[in-house]
Amino acid sequence: MKTKAELEPECPVATTVALIGNKWKLLIMRNLLVRPWRFNELHKNLEGISQKVLTDSLRQMEADGIITRTVYPEVPPRVEYALSELGESMRPILMSMQEWGNRYKAQKKSE
Amino acid sequence: MKTKAELEPECPVATTVALIGNKWKLLIMRNLLVRPWRFNELHKNLEGISQKVLTDSLRQMEADGIITRTVYPEVPPRVEYALSELGESMRPILMSMQEWGNRYKAQKKSE
Known about the structure:
2 copies of one chain form a homodimer. By secondary structure, chain A is of the alpha+beta class. Chain A contains 7 helices and 3 strands; from the N terminus they run αααβααββαα. In chain A, 60% of the residues lie in helices and 13% in strands. In chain A, a hairpin with a 5-residue loop joins strand 2 and strand 3. Chains A and B meet through helix 2, helix 3 and helix 7 of A and helix 2, helix 3 and helix 7 of B.
């Protein structure tokens, strides 16, 4: 959970950075923009993330209202993480990172 | 300095995240998009950053080619950090974070 000062800084970039300004949260957002994911899928896909960091990241993102956690009453119970409407509204940020990364990779290749 | 695998991951979002995927680098970029800054100015502006983390961040960003470090031969020498052309090309990413933050803040205010 963010403190009030962290959630409501003066600068709008800092506001966004407070919610998704780290490597793992950005990569989790990238994945959830495609479809809902289960914990173990994310853990397998995000190479190098520990269970604790993934758990903490997902809990913070849920508390911040950018992802939802849905438990399906199956045996064993299935838990899925998905973007909330607020999280979905961050799509342009991830798209601009994707576009920049594509241009950068194309440039590196042509060097 | 990034390893080859970190600099050239398959996913373009991961490529971008490897270069600026953390709180302080994003906030440094935000500042340098306006004008060149001196070390002490940045240190004063980025509340809570340690000298070591600021130094390390600037060195990595310089090694990654997104910022430049210019020493002006004055007494005492003046050192300024500025965006390189590559760093400047990240402007749309920061702009999308700014836009999202502005919308988020406006929404919070109206609640």
